[in-house]
Specification:
This protein has a four-stranded mixed β-sheet, covered by helices on one side. Strands 4-5-6 form a three-stranded antiparallel β-sheet, covered by helices on one side. The chain starts with a strand and ends with a strand. The protein is an alpha+beta fold.
């Protein structure tokens, strides 16, 4: 089962990572100024990850596929790593859909 981990970055902002059961990061957040805003972001991922239309499939300048997960208002709530193939990216999206809804939250902040 996956988990969300909340951490504080060097700039003092709260960030979360969604990790798959193997420990690999499958989605990372932006920086939040408060822990409660970060926790709201996690709830948004849990809800919005079930709507495939909210996954924005993109390609980096070097051709590497990656994705963003958007909230229903269009704001990006998480982004993926770069993948070496489109099928890898689709597996990442599948993993977010599977892991996010029931993932525990671990507060490392």
């Amino acid at each position: 089962m996956g988990k969300f981990e909340i951490n504080v970055d060097k700039g003092g902002k709260y960030r979360f990572n969604l990790k798959a059961s193997n420990g690999q990061v499958i989605l990372s957040s932006q920086g939040y100024t408060t822990k409660s805003a970060c926790e709201n972001g996690i709830e948004s991922v849990k809800t919005n990850s079930q709507n495939d239309d909210l996954f924005e499939r993109l390609e980096a300048k070097d051709g590497s596929p990656y994705f963003n997960l958007k909230a229903s208002n269009g704001q990006v709530i998480g982004n993926s790593e770069m993948y070496s193939s489109s099928s890898g990216m689709e597996n990442g999206i599948s993993s977010v859909k599977t892991n996010a809804p029931d993932a525990d939250v671990v507060d490392n902040s």
